[in-house]
């Protein structure tokens, strides 16, 4: 069983996991990485979930307000050796519960077409593809999703 903690972006385990995520995305995104990275800063994120097995951090995710009633899921990551074990879904469900507790009606998110595991995770968890929003509106490699919570 995994232990989940609610924290914020000051959490050093979250920062370490995001460092691993950014290294992975730099490889996957190639020349497009700098564009995406500018929208993925983690300073001052109030709502972060970290998943642990014992004291070992395995995965993370965060939410931040996008607009009134809508929260954006950010920085979802599970360590490569622990993928396929349901950790991403557990973290995502906790983020959705937190969003609902905070009074949000909808979660949105952006992932990349070069992240097929992420696309499958969101589809499996009831997210629907929507037109690309905000800064991703004209980015062909982006895939955006939403789900009511």
Fold and architecture overview:
With 149 residues, this protein is α+β, with helices and mostly antiparallel strands. It has one domain (3-148): Gcn5-related N-acetyltransferase (GNAT) (Aminopeptidase), CATH 3.40.630. Helix content is 32%, strand content 34%. The protein is built from four helices and seven strands; from the N terminus they run βααβββαβαββ. The chain has helices at 12-29, 33-37, 87-101, 116-124; strands at residues 3-7, 47-53, 56-67, 70-78, 106-112, 128-130, 142-148. Strands 1-2-3-4-5-7-6 form a seven-stranded mixed sheet, with helices on both faces. The two termini are 24 Å apart.
The gross shape turns out to be globular
Label the structural class: alpha+beta
Low-confidence stretches: none
How many strands, which pairing sense, and closed or not: the largest β-sheet? Answer: 7 strands, mixed
Residues in helix, %: 25-40%
Radius of gyration: 14 Å
Strand order of the largest sheet: 1-2-3-4-5-7-6
CATH level 3 topology: Aminopeptidase
- Number of helical regions: 4
Number of β-strand runs: 7
Query: In what range is the share of β-strand residues?
Result: 25-35%
CATH superfamily annotation: Gcn5-related N-acetyltransferase (GNAT)
Just name the CATH architecture: 3-Layer(aba) Sandwich
Mean pLDDT: 93
Domain count, please report it.
1
Q: How far apart are the termini?
A: 24 Å
Instruction: Look at the structure and give the CATH class.
Output: Alpha Beta
Tell me the series of helices and strands, N- to C-terminal: EHHEEEHEHEE
């Amino acid at each position: 069983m995994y232990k989940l903690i609610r924290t914020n972006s000051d959490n050093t385990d979250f920062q370490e996991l995001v460092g691993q995520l950014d290294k992975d995305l730099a490889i996957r995104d190639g020349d497009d990485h700098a564009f995406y990275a500018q929208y993925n800063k983690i300073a001052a994120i109030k709502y972060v979930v970290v998943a642990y097995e014992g004291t070992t951090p395995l995965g993370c995710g965060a939410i931040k307000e996008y607009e009134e009633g809508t929260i954006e899921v950010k920085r979802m990551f599970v360590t490569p050796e622990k993928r396929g074990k349901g950790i991403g879904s557990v973290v995502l469900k906790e983020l959705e519960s937190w969003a609902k507790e905070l009074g949000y009606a909808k979660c949105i998110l952006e992932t990349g077409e070069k992240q097929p595991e992420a696309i499958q995770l969101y589809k499996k968890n009831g997210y629907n593809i929507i037109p690309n929003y905000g800064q991703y509106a004209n980015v062909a490699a982006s895939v955006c999703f939403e789900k009511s919570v």
